[in-house]
């Protein structure tokens, strides 16, 4: 039997990027530290995966200050939400064809 991977997005093929998108999909926005804690990542590891998703324009950063400390909030873009939903549907389809 042939397995179809049509509809899967390369940007989401890493577990960390999948985790970032999952977390941001169910929250309006999360800051860097919240994502780092939630996904149990180092600063550098999270930063590199965030950059990959920003390059694809799947997430967007909003920088501000909270009590004179820099704070970066991340949220999913419209294109990111659509791509992630299509990716999840393709995964579900792939799983169902393996029964």
Principal-axes geometry comes out as elongated
- What is the structural class? alpha+beta
CATH class: Mainly Alpha
* Named CATH topology: Arc Repressor Mutant, subunit A
Tell me about the largest β-sheet: 3 strands, antiparallel
- Give the CA-CA distance, first to last residue: 12 Å
Return the domain count.
Answer: 1
Name given to the CATH homologous superfamily: Winged helix-like DNA-binding domain superfamily/Winged helix DNA-binding domain
Radius of gyration: 15 Å
Number of helices: 4
- Helix amount: 40-55%
Widest β-sheet, arrangement of strands: 1-3-2
* Overall pLDDT: 92
CATH architecture: Orthogonal Bundle
What are the secondary-structure elements, in order, as H or E? HEHHEEH
Counted beta strands: 3
How much of the residues is beta strand, in percent? 15-25%
Runs in which pLDDT lies below 50 for 5 or more consecutive residues are none
Q: Can you put this structure into words, describing what you see?
A:
This protein is an alpha+beta fold and 99 residues long. The protein has one domain (10-90): Arc Repressor Mutant, subunit A (Orthogonal Bundle), CATH 1.10.10.10. Helix content is 52%, strand content 18%. It has four helices and three strands. A three-stranded antiparallel beta sheet has the order 1-3-2. The N and C termini lie close together (12 Å). The model has no long low-confidence stretch (mean pLDDT 92).
């Amino acid at each position: 039997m042939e397995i179809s991977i049509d509809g899967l997005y390369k940007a989401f093929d890493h577990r960390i990027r999948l985790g970032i998108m999952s977390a941001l999909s169910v929250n309006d926005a999360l800051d860097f530290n919240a994502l780092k804690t939630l996904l149990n990542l180092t600063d550098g590891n999270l930063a590199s995966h965030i950059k990959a998703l920003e390059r694809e324009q799947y997430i967007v950063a909003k920088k501000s200050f909270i009590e004179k400390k820099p704070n970066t909030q991340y949220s999913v873009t419209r294109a990111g939400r659509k791509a992630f939903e299509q990716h999840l549907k393709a995964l579900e389809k792939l799983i169902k064809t393996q029964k």
